[in-house]
Each structure stands twice: as structure tokens, then as C-alpha cells.
Amino acid sequence: MGTESWWTVPDAGTATTEALARLREQRRLLGLVCDEVEIAGRRLAAESVDEWWRSPAQRSYGHRREELSGELQGAWRSLVGALAAVDEAIVQQKARL
User: Fold this and answer.
1) 61 domain residue, yes or no
2) Radius of gyration of the chain from Cα atoms?
3) Structural domain tally of the chain?
4) Fewer beta carbons below 10 Å: N end or C end of the chain?
5) What span, in angstroms and rounded, lies between the C-alpha atoms of 46 and 41?
6) How far apart are CA 94 and CA 86, in angstroms?
């Protein structure tokens, strides 16, 4: 039997390249989620609640929609921040190549 190993420790360049690929995939997935959250928020904002709604259930529904819209805006801002962080990490990984 030979002494050759079936696995070798990757060099720094390979590790950096693999990290860069993982970061790019993470950016792609975050971008998809960010887009979907933005679309949902826009759709929710575009569907107005009629002012003639007077019952407590209708008013409660309208208030919940407003809360949900705010939550979606917060989630979207967080995703945009995460995308910026991943972009910065990609720049740093590229500098290591």
C-alpha cells in the first residue's frame, strides 16, 4: 500500500477560494430572500384597507396589516445590512487571493 493520502490539507489559496464561493452563495440566497420580503412589503402596502371598515374585527385587521408592514420593513433593512456585510467579507476574501 502506498503512503499517499486520499485527502490533503488545502493550501491557503484553496481555502480562500472555497470561502469566497461560500460567501457568494450566501449573498445569492440573501438576495433572493431580500427580494421576496421587499415584494411582500410592497404588495401589502399597495392593498389599501378601505376606510369604510368600521367593525372592531375590521379595524383589528387593518392594524395588524400595518404592524406586519412595519415588521417586513424591519426585516428588509436587516437583510440589506446582512448583504452589505457579506459583500464586505467578499472584498476581504478577494484581497487575500
Assistant:
1) yes
2) 23
3) 1
4) N
5) 9
6) 12
